[in-house]
Task: inverse folding
């Protein structure tokens, strides 16, 4: 699990741990979550990724489930967006997923089985003004996942995407009341998601119950992105 020390990532890590899985989380800053095996890792560095996998494999054995959740935002309108703002978001959110998936599939192919779940966003399907970099990175995960699903299916490795909508995290808590109210009005269910609601979808895709699901995009967005 990349980006597993807060928000959605931490909820997923705790959900998988509660289901009996041996869970390892990567984090770029701060401290590892209490009670979980944590490894510091910057997904923009292949060296960091390789070292992190080595530590996880030494502690817990081969990685059977990969959840790629690490992500950043750097919102601004395209007309004033720097190239660094665009490429840095893609490097973490999309190329970071490539790096961890590439490292993970080696062991999965040897074992002839595995689960890869990429955490995208409703923004990747719906679009959002001021987030062209973030939306592009999250939309790219869908094409990436579906290509991998075709590559790896014969090895019994499934690759799926979870696309959360607005979730009750530190990021949304920073929005004003007016902004939060406008968001809720746009959501058919009229509320934001709780992190554990996203985590349960990830847990399902990582489980044996989802053995015949691959290349799917599962929205957890209260209906916000319907039709996409």
Result:
């Amino acid at each position: 699990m990349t980006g597993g020390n807060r928000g959605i990532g931490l909820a997923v890590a705790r959900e998988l741990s509660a289901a009996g899985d041996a869970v390892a989380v990567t984090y770029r800053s701060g401290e590892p979550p209490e009670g979980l095996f944590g490894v510091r890792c910057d997904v923009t560095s292949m060296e960091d990724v390789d070292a992190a996998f080595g530590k996880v494999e030494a502690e817990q054995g081969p990685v059977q489930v990969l959840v790629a959740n690490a992500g950043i935002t750097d919102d601004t309108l395209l007309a004033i967006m720097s190239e660094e703002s665009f490429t840095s978001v893609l490097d973490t959110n999309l190329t970071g997923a490539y790096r961890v998936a590439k490292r993970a599939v080696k062991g999965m192919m040897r074992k002839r089985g595995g689960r890869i779940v990429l955490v995208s966003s409703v923004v990747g399907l719906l679009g959002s003004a001021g987030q062209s970099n973030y939306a592009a990175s999250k939309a790219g995960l869908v094409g990436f996942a579906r290509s991998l699903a075709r590559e790896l299916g014969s090895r019994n490795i499934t690759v799926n995407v979870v696309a959360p909508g607005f979730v009750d995290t530190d990021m949304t808590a920073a929005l004003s009341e007016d902004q939060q109210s406008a968001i809720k009005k746009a959501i058919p269910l009229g509320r934001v998601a709780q992190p554990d609601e996203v985590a349960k979808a990830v847990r399902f895709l990582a489980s044996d119950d989802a053995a015949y699901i691959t290349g799917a995009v599962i929205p957890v967005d209260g209906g916000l992105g319907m039709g996409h």
